[in-house]
Each structure stands twice: as C-alpha cells, then as structure tokens.
Known about the structure:
By secondary structure, the chain is an alpha+beta fold.
Amino acid sequence: MPKFEKHIFVCGNQRLPGQPRPSCDPEGKAELQKLFKRKLAKRGLQGKVRANQSGCLDQCEHGPNVVVYPEAIWYGRVTMNDVEEIIESHIVGGKPVERLMIAEECLNTASCAHKPAKVPLPD
C-alpha cells in the first residue's frame, strides 16, 4: 500500500465536567473525525488521505482541533460545517483555510490570548 499523501488528526480528547481546560470531543462520539472519513471516501480520497482520531493535541483552548500533515497546519474551533471547506480548499486545492488556522504564536506556548493564566502550584 502506498503511503498517505496527507494525514488529518482530529482531537478526540474528553475531560470530565469542571476541569480547567476544555475538551475537543466532550461527548466522545468522534463525529468530526467520522465526517472527515465519510467526505474523503465520497471524493475517492481514502487511499491518499487518512483522517484519524487522536488523543489530546494540547491546544485545548482552541478546540476542537485538527492538524494536517505533512504541512503541519493547525486548525482550531473546527465545526462539522468546516469539514467540507478544509477538504476542498486544503486537501484537494492545497490552500489552507486561513480563518480556521491557529495563530503561530499560540501553538505550543505557555500563554497566549486564548489560554487562561496558570495558577502557581503551592510549595
């Protein structure tokens, strides 16, 4: 089997209610990932593009999160209504969907405008 041209990781992290950080898939239904798979199959792309459910991508405040490799394009606040646009524009057309991209300065940082301030741990 040839390697995939693109790999889409869809965060499926769940947290219990009341946790300090939000969940990307609070109900644990993987609906976003399943929709990507259905739409990719409908376009005949399932052998070229893989959509996987992932664990926490650690961008919780921007979720639900999706990352597309090999380009390492990070999308935040992705809804079911965004799936078709991501596939059409980015996966098929090669043009990332800018309005959904997580700002570079927010990726893998201790703080950004979207993350709450960390409370220091007691001694």
